[in-house]
Amino acid sequence: MQNDQAGDAKRTSLHGHWSSRMAFILAVTGSAVGLGNIWKFPYIAGQNGGGAFVLVYLICVVAIGMPVMMSEILIGRRGRRNPVATMELLGKEEGSSGHWRWVGGMGVIAGILILSYYSVVAGWTLAYVVKSVSGVFVGANADVVGAQFADFVGNWKAVGLSHTVFMGLTIFVVARGVERGLEQAVKFMVPALLILMLMLLGYSINSGYFGEGVAFLFTPDFEKLTWNSVLVALGQAFFSLSIGMGAIMAYGAYLPEDTSITGATAAVVTADTGIAILAGLAIFPLVFANGLSPDSGPGLVFQTLPLAFGQMAGGVFFATLFFVLLAFAAWTSAIGLMEPAVAWLVEHYNRTRAQASVMIGGLIWALGFGSVLSFNVLAETKFLAGTIFDNIEYLTSNFMLPLGGLLITVFAGWVMCRNSTADELGGSGATYKAWRVLARFVAPIGILIVLINAVT
Fold first, then answer.
1. Minimal CA–CA distance to 16: which of 247, 245, 253, 248?
2. DSSP letters spanning 258-282
3. Is residue 121 within 8 Å of 38, Cβ to Cβ?
4. Calpha distance 162→89 (Å, rounded)
5. What domains can be seen in the chain, in order of their start residue?
6. N or C: which end of the chain has fewer CB within 10 A?
């Protein structure tokens, strides 16, 4: 491209840097590991036949998830700005156009919209921590547990309060900045999340049904694997890594120059996928031990598992443990979702981080009440894909994220010159060549399949 040297003058992030490679890995892992891993992965694996689905999922993570994440990180580090400014700056530097800023802008908007409904569901986890501690699930049958969930989501004040508390916690962390806020939070929460998961896994191992859980997750049954299952695996691999929404690009902007993007990405993808599989290994033995269905859908976490916890020895402790774990996972992801918009407001309008965090957080909180009311007052108000919650989730998951991921990968693979991308990825050896093939051909084709499936 016209000025290969322009990007070589190393920029400095306006927001500071991660103090170490491990801090970055924990931050990105925290952003990637969320409700999608612990809540969604187990039930979609259950709905799509278990082992065969997991195998396809792992292939998709390596062939599509990794190159897209590497593309997003290298763009973020190259630009050292918020996603909007980074895409505009690099678009011009690479001899293309400043209009690429709209891709960054779409990611920022997607993060705001996703967090508006994500915060509502995350708030449920906080409410269920309280329910678990109080022992309401002890000895409860399926009807009682189902009624408790229905009564909770049917009460807009209760759902709104939990949404408000969760957003307050997220605003607090983001307002403190990169090292004092984001880094300190993930240094505690990600290891804590893993410890909690391992404790729950230890219980599952001793449940007497661990073998059934392992067999369900790892015994491939290709007769149950449909084309739709493959598409679901592709979509889950893409969305579970938090790519396409600007969060990883924003975190990449704070990455030190001497950190290997390839190595860091591999560590994040391994951790993210490992936690999703650990969640399945922890959850399915409990489901089988209580004679419950492994394909019970979204209700697996908020209805099926509380029923299981209510029947087991030490159920109050393990139910509380599980929902604290879920809340931590949601919190680390929410921080990543909010960061791109806050970084943009700080840079574009010269606001302090505290001001920007309150302004963006307040906007997200207000938008979230559309989703709060979707489960009660406005439950019967439906249009297009369903309720307000359904429409925002459908728009972001099926269009904005895959389109953002596609354009980011095309930009890194086709618009940026070899010198620029090789400089960020540490040379032009076999690893770089593999990334270039995946980013230019395999990943875009895979994402296009997801997009086409969404509109047909």
1. 253
2. TS-HHHHHHHHHHHHHHHHHHHHHH
3. no
4. 40
5. 21-455 (1.10.4160)
6. C
Distance of CA 200 to the CA centre of its chain: 21
**Cα–Cα distance measured from residue 243 to residue 222, given in angstroms and rounded to the nearest whole number:** 29
Instruction: Give pLDDT, residue 178.
Output: 78
- Whether residue 27 contacts residue 188, with contact meaning beta carbons closer than 8 Å, is answered with no
Phi and psi torsions of 138, nearest 5°: -60, 120
pLDDT at 8 (0 to 100): 43
CA distance 416 to 316: 54
**What is the distance between the alpha carbons of residues 52 and 272, in angstroms, rounded to a whole number?**
19
Distances (CA, A) of 91 to 88, 117, 417: 5, 32, 11
How many Å apart are CA 4 and CA 24, to the nearest integer? 27
Q: CA angle 181-320-142, nearest 5°?
A: 135
pTM: 0.91
Q: In this structure, what token pair is assigned to residue 172?
A: 């607090």
The 3-state DSSP class for residue 140 equals coil
First vs last Cα of the chain: how many Å apart? 37
By CB neighbour count within 10 A (0-12 exposed, 13-18 middle, 19+ buried), where does 227 fall? exposed
Give me the residue label for tokens 């296009």. Answer: 448
Residues in the chain: 456
Give CA–CA dist 123/169, Å, rounded: 11
163, 120 contact by CB (below 8 A): yes
pLDDT in tens, 172-223: 999 998 777 888 888 888 888 888 888 888 888 988 889 998 888 888 878 8
Rounded percentage of the chain residues whose pLDDT exceeds 90: 54
* Pairwise CA distance, residues 259 & 270, whole Å: 17
Amino acid letter for position 301: V
Closest CA to 182 of 53, 334, 321, 37: 334
> What gap in Å lies between CA 231 and CA 402, rounded to an integer?
13
**Residue-by-residue DSSP string for 305-372:** HHHHHHHSTTHHHHHHHHHHHHHHHHHHHHHHHHHHHHHHHHHHH---HHHHHHHHHHHHHHHHHHHH
Model confidence pLDDT, tens digit, residues 118-174: 999 999 999 999 999 999 999 888 889 989 999 999 999 999 999 999 999 999 999
Beta-bridge mates of residue 386: 383
Amino acid present at 80: R
| Pure H helices in 139-209 | 142-153, 156-175, 184-205
Tell me how far apart the alpha carbons of residues 401 and 287 are, in angstroms, rounded to a whole number: 32
The single residue listed with the structure tokens 């909010």 is: 338
Are 111 and 247 in contact, with CB atoms under 8 Å apart?
Answer: yes
